[in-house]
Amino acid sequence: MEPLCHFENITVKRGGQTVLDGLTLRIDRCEKLAILGPNGCGKSTLIKTILRELFPIADSNSYAAIMGQQRWDVFELRQHLGVVSGELQRECWRDISVKQMVVSGFFGSMGLFRQHEATAEMWQRSAELMDWLGCAHLADRAMNTLSTGQIRRVLITRALVNSPETLLLDEPGNGLDPAAQQRLRQSIHQIADAGHGIILVTHNLPDITSDIHRVVTMKNGRILHDGTPSQILTSKNLTELFDTPIHVHRSRDSYHITAADA
What we know:
alpha/beta; six-stranded mixed sheet; three-stranded antiparallel sheet; globular
C-alpha cells in the first residue's frame, strides 16, 4: 500500500516564519510511531500538514502525498485519520453530554446540531467504544464538568467512531496526573492491540509506551533522528535533542529522563 504520508523536502511557513525546513519523512500505514521534540520544533505543524490543515510551499523539488494522493477532500481524509489534540480539548469545553460529544465524531462536529441525524447504529457504536475505553460511566455528564484526563479519554473515543486506520495523538499526556497518565497508556495499548496505527506527538518521554515501534525526533523543523526506540532514546541523542545534559532511564515498559546532575 501507499504510505500514510510521504514528504520529500517540504517547507511550511506560519506567520511568515519557517516552521518545517526541508523536511523529509515517510510514515507507513498502521505504523506505531512517536514524534519527539522540544516545544516549538514543528511537531504540531507536521501533524497539521498531514491533516491538510497546512500546506507546504509549492516547489518542484518537494513532494507531499497522503496515502498516495496529493489532493484530498479534508472530510474524506478524516475518515482515515482520528485526531486528539489540545485544540480539540479547548473546543469541546461545552455544556453538552459526553455521549453527544462521542457520537458527533461521525459528523466531524463538536456536538450534535439540528441537521445531524444520529442513527441507532451510531449510538450503539459510540456506547460500545465508551465501554471499551472505560468512560461509559461518564455518558450523561456534561463535557465542561470533566477532568483533563476524562476529557482526553472522551476525545479518543470520539476519534475512533469511524474506525480510522490511524489515530494522531498530539501531546496527549499534557496536564495529566499520574493516575490519568496510566489510564492513557492503557488506552494507547488497547488501540494499538486493536490494529490501529498510532502517531504520538510529544515532548514527554513517558508518553512513549512499549507499543511504539519507531521514534522520530525533530529539532528546528527538521528530522534529527529516526529509528527504533532502543536506537533513538539514548542519553546522547536526547541531550542533543533538548540541548541540555540528561540521562535516559528505561523501566520494563517506559522511558524516563532526568537532568545529568540529578
